[in-house]
Amino acid sequence: MNNQKTSKITTMAMAIALVTVCTMVIRIPSINGYVNFGDIMIFIVAAVLGRKFGFVAGGFGSMLADLIGGYFIYMPATFIIKGLEGLIFASVYERLKNNNTVVSLLIAGLIAGTEMFLGYFIYNNIMFGYADAIGSLIPGDIMQGYLSSIIAVPFIIAIKKTNFKLLNQE
Question: Beta partners for 30?
Answer without folding.
Answer: 33
